[in-house]
Amino acid sequence: MLLVGNGPVITRDPEQPYIERGAVAIDGEQIVAVGGQEELEERFADAEFVDARGGVIMPGLVNCHTHIYSGLARGLSIKGCNPTNFLENLEQQWWAIDRKLTLDGTRASAYATILESIRNGVTTIFDHHASFAEVPGSLFAIKDVAQECGIRACLCYETSDRDGVEKRDQAIAENAEFARWAAREQKAGNGMIAAMFGGHATFTLSDETMDKMAEANDGLTGFHIHVCEGMNDVWDSRANRGGIAPVERLLQHGLLGPKTMLGHCIHVTPAEMDIIRETGTHIVNNPESNMGNAVGCAPVLEFFRRGIDVCLGTDAHTHDMLESLKVFLIIQRHNAAMPNVGWSEDMAMLFQNNPRMASGYFGREIGALRPGAVADVIVMDYPRFTPFSDENIDGHMLFGMMGRSCRTTIVNGRVLYRDRAFVDLDEERINAWTLEQAKKLWGDLNGRAY
Q1: Where are the beta strands (DSSP E) in 221-340?
Q2: For burial by CB atoms within 10 Å, which of 197, 252, 279, 441 has the most?
Q3: What is the pTM of this model?
Q4: Quick one: pLDDT at residue 268?
Q5: To 10 degrees, what angle do helices 207-217 and 165-187 make?
Q6: Handedness of CA 210, 212, 214, 220 (dihedral sign)
Q7: Would the CA dihedral through 317, 323, 324, 326 be positive or negative?
Q8: Sign of the C-alpha dihedral, residues 229, 230, 231, 235?
């Protein structure tokens, strides 16, 4: 057993939201008690004590949209890459990378992404992968790294027509095979890995491909697709796909529903919003990526007003969910020209909708510290020089904490990162191997040695 204590506890449990000097008791994979430290120390006297050292004890964070395949891109400059619009950015950078990404490159990207996530207190990720150099086995390669590192991961592959029929069919097969594997594992009680069925975006998915995706999935899981991130989806659907809207295309091909999550949705129409709401489909917003790609500001305030369930992701622009939380508030207020909007939506996305999405896919309660919930617990270094309580914890999250405030990360009852050091991983060895894979990738992209 573990007892995490010696700090204030933020539970995200409305019945007991905050304990000034508290502790969390963990037995195996789940939380068995949350309360005052003295009481739990007496009750669980034989438990291993994880000292928060005065830091804030809180639930692990969930990232509902990231891209492991970009893990080796930090610092990369591709020869000739100078995009002036969103499509050029895809063609000159991201598609160029995934066309060179081998299985070893995928594994290295997974290490880079997952270790950064754990450092930032992220205990669950939803990843959308692409590695068209080597498609078969890529999700299983990521799964192996996720299991070694101990993170909770929901994976899918980015089906697309952009590299031809053979690669498209490989992507569909990878999604279907992995989804069947994950379903068997969850049925057997191994619930750390889940699957969605990935698609790139409607402008790179033909009607035939959408039908093949639905047929291969056969209702097993939900779909994870980029929608109206740039105007490319809108123009393509109107000009080349019968003049209908992108979301309507997804509806016609049976790709919407309560298990599906649509990324971005910046340029959707009010009619498309109604379809998303009526089908129970989720949206995931990625504010920093949208700003960096200069594609616009998603109408998240309107999504909420219409009753659409919106989650929060990073699109791998960062692995810090608290950074994403901050940027969301800024871009929404800037876009609305109103300094008093976005706060409640911000908190609902990260601390309600993301955990609910994760709980649905992993079949366990995620995102709260209470008995019966999974033991995903983090400790944040946060000196408190102003009043701190259940009345203002969200304000402290927004204006004080950062992901790198995390000092300890526990996932499913396993201590992965303790006092800013990885427990069971040789970080130096992993980083050295990852660097070698990055050099190979960069060399293939630029035609020179690194």
Answers
A1: 223-227, 261-264, 282-285, 310-312
A2: 197
A3: 0.97
A4: 97
A5: 20
A6: negative
A7: negative
A8: negative
Q: Give the Cα separation of 202 and 244 in Å (integer).
A: 12
* Tokens read off for 206: 């033909």
- Residue 84 burial (C-beta neighbours within 10 Å; 0-12, 13-18, 19+): exposed
Cα angle for residues 353, 357, 358 (degrees, 5° grid): 120
Q: Which residues contact 314 (CB under 8 A, 6 or more apart)?
A: 63, 65, 66, 286, 288, 289, 320, 321, 323, 324
pLDDT in tens, the chain (450 residues): 999 999 999 999 999 999 999 999 999 999 999 999 999 999 999 999 999 999 999 999 999 999 999 999 999 999 999 999 999 999 999 999 999 999 999 999 999 999 999 999 999 999 999 999 999 999 999 999 999 999 999 999 999 999 999 999 999 999 999 999 999 999 999 999 999 999 999 999 999 999 999 999 999 999 999 999 999 999 999 999 989 999 999 999 999 999 999 999 999 999 999 999 999 999 999 999 999 999 999 999 999 999 999 999 999 999 999 999 999 999 999 999 999 999 999 999 999 999 999 999 999 999 999 999 999 999 999 999 999 998 999 999 999 999 999 999 999 999 999 999 999 999 999 999 999 999 999 999 999 999
Residue type for position 412: N
One-letter amino acid of 185: E
Name beta bridge partners: 159: 199
- Tokens 């890995």 correspond to 193
Nearest in space to 418 (alpha carbons), one of 38, 53, 20? 53
Nearest residue to 214 via CA among 225, 230, 203:
225
3-state DSSP assignment of residue 209: helix
**DSSP letters for 107-152:** HHHHHHHHHHHHHTTEEEEEEEE--TTS-TTHHHHHHHHHHHHT-E
Amino acid at 276: I
Q: CA angle, 285 as apex, 159 and 151 as ends, to 5°?
A: 70
Residue 168 backbone zone (phi > 0: left; psi -120 to 50: alpha; other: beta): alpha
Task: Please say whether the beta carbons of 114 and 411 come within 8 A.
Answer: no
Contact 402, 322 (CB under 8 A): yes
Q: Residue 100 corresponds to which tokens in the numbers above?
A: 């060179």
Token readout for 209 is 């491909």
Q: 401 with 322: CB under 8 angstroms?
A: yes
Residue from 334, 337, 336, 278 nearest 306 by CA: 278
